[in-house]
Amino acid sequence: MFFKSKKKEEEKKEVKKNQLLKRENIRTGCPVDTQENIIRTVGQMLVDSGYVDQPYVDAMVEREKSFSTFMGNGLALPHGVEAAKKEIKSSGIAVMVFPEPVSWGGQDVQIVIGIAGVGDEHLNILSIIADKMLAPETAQQLIESDVDTIYNILGGDE
Asked: How far apart are CA 150 and CA 7, in angstroms?
C-alpha cells in the first residue's frame, strides 16, 4: 500500500509539470502593441487558465515599473511582485510571439513569457527558460515556429 501511494504522488507531480504550459496559452503572430498592454494580455492568459487571480496582472505591471523583465535575445519574462504571491493558484506560463519586434523599455522583444510560480517555483521556471533561451538560435526558432513546436521546446517534451 505504501508503494501505491508513493506512485500516486509521483503521478500528481508529473501532471502538475505537464500543466505548466498549455497549448492554448501560446499565441503566435501577435500584433505589435504597448508593453503594458502585452503584459496585461499575457497576464490575462494566466488568469483565464486558472493559474492566478486577476490582481496578479496588476502586480505584473508593477514589477515592470520597478525592474525590467527584459532578458536579452529578444525575450521578456514578466511576472508579479513578491506581494502578489497570494494571487497565484498554481504555477504556469503563457507565451506570446511577435513577428515584428516590440519596444520593451527601449529593447526589442519578440518573445514574451508571462510567469506565475507558487512559492519559489518561479525561480526554477525562470532558470529553465533562461537556459533554453541562452542561444540566439533558440529565440529565432521560437519566433518562426508554430504552437506545437513552441510547446515542445518550452514544455520540455523535446
From this structure: 30
